[in-house]
Amino acid sequence: MSDDLATILSLERLQAAGTGPLYVKLRRMLEEAVRTGTLGHGDALPPERDIAEFAAVSRVTVRKAIDELVADGLLVRRHGSGTFVAKPVSKVEQRLSQLTSFTEDMARRGMSSRSEWLHKGIHTPSPDEMMILGLGTDVKVSRLSRLRIADDQPLAIENASVSGEFLPDPSAVTNSLYAELERLQVRPVRAVQRISATNMKEADAQLLGVSVGAAGLSIERISYLGSGRAVEFTRSLYRGDAYDFVAELTIAVT
Ligand code: 16G
Which of 8, 37, 74, 77 is the most exposed place for a label (fewest CB within 10 A)? Predict the structure, then answer.
């Protein structure tokens, strides 16, 4: 534990932190550590055991204080690696009228983008995939699941399905799906997107570094070739605090 943090979390401070339950005082002290920069954005919190020992409080008290700060979004828990001070999110705006890829969207904003692969494989299509992509029973589907990250900030989880006729080898997609579809001369030219509000479930919240129940945007995109054939069916979950979709509207001409 750094000397500064040790001073902030000291027993004397806790005793001097006014009245109220111990966990509320500890919570205030942790908030102060973040506000004053003693704990920087992205920094790991010392293990709960160490904080409990140092401030001479029970682990239940530490857990309660941290739980509240996680619920408020000041701290984030990452499975297997501990608790961290949340990074302030910079909002990304996406225009709804342009059919662009995640990689292109981020590059246009001067942001770096990368993906963590969650799954890549060839499968027998589900009834939904068969219907939406217009597949026969003999055609396989390529499935690609990724955590999409921009400037080191996780933004979305994307699950894309592409007909095996258009993308026979999903392992060929290393970075951008649309770049690979372009190389195969089957890049979509039109898409229909449906956006709905959702709350994050535990597994998704952990991947995106937000608290369970945080606001999210669930998006389904079906994209098409010039011929009208559907190429891609993608279900994505975007962080509600990090993404704005902007649509330009013009007056209807009757
Ligand atoms: C965007 C698309 C997604 C597409 C991906 C390709 C939305 C909601 N989704 O994220 O459907 O598969 O771009 O990106 O905009 P890539 O070429 O960088 O892999």
Answer: 37
